Amino acid sequence: MAKGNRVLGEKEAANRRFDLDNELRVWLSQAIKQSALSREEVAERVSELLNRHITVAQINSWSAGSKSHKLPAAYLAAFLTVLGEHSILEDMASLCGLYVVSRDDWLRLRLAKVREEKARLELKEQALEALLSGEVL
Question: What phi, psi does 67 have (nearest 5°)?
Fold first, then answer.
């Protein structure tokens, strides 16, 4: 398990709704409506990213509430990229007790951690230098 990840307890997990089929349908439908792209353009761009032909009919089946076809998880990143709408990813992360941050925010967080570590190491360095010089801290 990656550092910083945590496993949800049984009670915590039981209180969450993990079946996101309907939410994915609604998200896809709304994201396409809010996009400046037509369904044809979305299908074309997603096809290019996946190197696989995606049709408008497929998109319609994945976004229609009455259909039994489900958006393949393997295609989600392509749709997120093409549509530029990430709320479903944020919802999914939240279910797992995580957050989604932008690349720049992630870099800022990493920089802050590096600075904290640097300050900790500088204090350790000062303590060692004091010991070498015979000073008492």
Answer: -90, 155
Check: pTM over 0.90? Answer yes or no: no
Tell me the pLDDT tens digit for each residue of 86-119: 999 999 999 888 999 999 999 999 999 999 999 9
The DSSP code sequence of the chain is --TT--PPPHHHHHTS----HHHHHHHHHHHHHHSSS-HHHHHHHHHHHHTS---HHHHHHHH-TT------GGGHHHHHHHH---HHHHHHHHHTT-----HHHHHHHHHHHHHHHHHHHHHHHHHHHHHHHT---
Amino acid at site 68: S
What distance in Å separates the CA atoms of residue 26 and residue 62, rounded to the nearest whole number? 10
pLDDT of 131 reads 93
